[in-house]
Specification:
Glucose Permease (Domain IIA), metalloendopeptidase activity, 255 residues, 9% helix
Length: 255
């Protein structure tokens, strides 16, 4: 996969995103977007979603147009702080999973190094500056989900749109249309209603507003490897790789 040339995004809302809005039963338009700033305290007001089937979404493009300087110039891990301290990569991007017919993992699964469900209700942070486009409780294998669209400034006047997906959450602490900053608390790690050991399933997408899918696929088109992306666009104080986060007994295992 060539990370130098991901698919570029058009500034106006695409037909693809409009299909996404219809598919997710868009219920809110023009939602207010007041940033909470760098926050490490959850907002219980939005941790209310208990039953499956609840979806709230908004079109992020008018909001990004209204705030053109609110761009994502760099990114950080969604768990554990700047370098995912205290966490390991239980299942990496592209790993083939026999439980799903050998299909490839379309994201990354992150767990605490203390094991078990010790990371249950631990904070989940925004990957970069962006607009919350959807919060939902899909139930089943997905559980509670947050989706964020990022306007990525890569320099030289070039911009890409990216989307991040945070799944299996215990609580959701943001609302649709909200501007969130890199490292801002957006929710907490969950277990998809008891379907899995507690962990974060995290996806980085170049296909904005596509259907949620199943987390696995025969191909990885429209998806990007998060840790490899961070190696290029993330913090530079020290080097890291996917392999540097796979060092426990669970290495090579799957959730």
């Amino acid at each position: 996969m060539n990370l130098q040339n991901p698919q570029k995004r058009i500034w106006s809302a695409s037909n693809q995103f409009l299909r996404f809005l219809l598919a997710t039963c868009l219920s809110l338009l023009g939602t207010g977007c007041v940033s909470k700033g760098y926050s490490y305290q959850g907002n219980p007001l939005f941790g209310w979603m208990e039953s499956s089937g609840e979806i709230r979404a908004t079109n992020p493009y008018p909001i990004l147009t209204r705030y053109p300087s609110f761009q994502a110039t760099d990114f950080e891990f969604p768990v554990g702080g700047k370098y995912a301290e205290g966490y390991y990569l239980a299942q990496k991007f592209g790993a083939e999973n026999g439980k799903f017919g050998g299909r490839k993992h379309l994201g990354e699964d992150w767990n605490s190094i203390t094991g078990g469900d010790s990371d249950f209700a631990a904070p989940v942070y925004a990957f970069g500056n962006g607009v919350v486009s959807e919060i939902a409780d899909y139930g089943g294998g997905w559980g509670k989900v947050v989706r964020i669209v990022h306007h990525h400034n890569v320099g030289n006047g070039d911009f890409w749109f990216l989307e991040t997906v945070y799944a299996h959450l215990h609580t959701i602490d943001v609302e649709p249309g909200q501007l969130v900053k890199k490292t801002e608390w957006i929710g907490t790690i969950g277990d998809a209603g008891g379907n899995y050991p507690a962990h974060l399933h995290f996806e980085l997408r170049s296909a904005i507003g596509a259907s949620l899918g199943g987390g696995y696929g025969l191909k990885t088109d429209g998806f990007l490897p998060p840790t490899r992306w961070l190696m290029q666009y993330g913090p530079k104080d020290k080097s890291f790789s996917e392999e540097s986060f796979q060092y426990l007994i669970e290495k090579g295992g799957t959730l």
